[in-house]
UniProtKB/TrEMBL annotation:
Keyword Amino-acid biosynthesis set for record: no
PROSITE patterns linked: ADH_SHORT
An annotated Gene Ontology molecular function: oxidoreductase activity, acting on the CH-OH group of donors, NAD or NADP as acceptor
UniProt keyword terms in alphabetical order: Oxidoreductase
Protein name, entry field: NADP-dependent 3-hydroxy acid dehydrogenase YdfG
Family: Belongs to the short-chain dehydrogenases/reductases (SDR) family.
Ketoreductase domain sequence ranges: 8-181
SUPFAM superfamilies: NAD(P)-binding Rossmann-fold domains
Highest taxon of source: Bacteria
Length: 245
């Protein structure tokens, strides 16, 4: 076993598919104890079974990140059982693309609920423990959409700008023991685009997403940030397909 995980405990939200799943699999293989959280517990259970079969340390937990109390309870339970929580990977997210004049306000609310509130629920839940121990690491899954706003992406990009700001704000306010990393993926293989309801946005995504890189390409970026020595804080990584413009 690669020892770089050193028994550190990592909570990954949205670990049931795509980037979260790839991140959980990679970190478990590197020796971290990984807590996989999402709503689809059947999917989590199958992944955890796989990982344990391979001799890795992992567990699955049901979590809807929009439920603030449930998020705190989960974090408290992990800390009670494992004695520590070293890393939060705030990865859970939805991308419901459409033009502003389509006025899909319910979908805008949904994106803010999951991508922004779901993220700060996690930060709020782990901060007391991080402060008490004087150490911890928050990894946020933002997007290239935190740097650019293509048509149909206004609200989605707004949630990713928010994720970027939350992560940077945490860095500025925290002592040197708390590290933060914003990962900004480009087009990556996952189920993210499957939930788009706007037919024009969905149609556009077919060609746009053809250049997608495997989710493990993003997982490697997470792994890199976590593997740095305690005095090195990797704050942002943009990783996109070489073919993406
Ligand atoms: P997927 O749709 O494959 O994965 C999204 C994950 O989020 C799932 O595990 C889903 O689990 C979880 N999730 C959604 N809603 C909730 C909720 N309310 N509570 C808990 N978990 C939830 O897409 P990706 O892997 O692509 O997405 C992961 C992150 O990466 C997102 O934040 C996305 O914005 C970001 N990203 C992705 C890019 C890409 O091209 N793929 C590019 C840039 C950023 P479940 O449904 O079981 O709850």
């Amino acid at each position: 076993n690669d020892m770089s995980g050193e028994n550190r405990v990592v909570l990954v939200t949205g670990a049931s598919s795509g980037i979260g799943e790839a991140t959980a699999r990679r970190l478990a293989a590197e020796g971290y104890h990984v807590v996989l959280a999402a709503r689809r517990t059947d999917r989590l259970g199958a992944i955890v079974e796989d990982l344990r079969h391979a001799g890795h340390s992992a567990e699955s937990r049901a979590l809807d990140v929009t439920d603030r109390a449930a998020f705190q309870t989960l974090v408290d339970e992990v800390i009670a059982v494992r004695g520590r929580l070293d890393v939060l990977v705030g990865n859970a997210g939805v991308m419901l693309l459409s033009r502003l004049d389509g006025r899909q306000v319910d979908e805008w609310d949904r994106m803010f609920d999951v991508n922004v509130r779901g993220l700060y629920h996690g930060i709020a839940a782990v901060l007391p423990h991080f402060r008490e121990r004087g150490t911890g690491h928050v990894v946020t899954m933002a997007s290239v959409g935190a740097h650019e706003v293509p048509p149909t992406s206004a609200v989605y990009s707004a949630t990713k700008f928010a994720a970027w700001a939350l992560t940077e704000g945490l860095r500025v306010e925290s002592g040197p023991g708390v590290r933060v990393t914003t990962i900004c993926p480009g087009v990556t293989e996952s189920e993210l685009a499957d939930h788009i309801t706007d037919p024009h946005a969905a149609e556009f995504m077919v060609d746009y997403r053809a250049a997608a890189i495997p989710a493990d390409a993003v997982a490697r970026a997470v792994s890199f940030a976590l593997a740095q020595p305690a005095d090195v804080d990797v704050n942002e990584i943009i990783v996109r397909p070489a073919a993406q413009r």
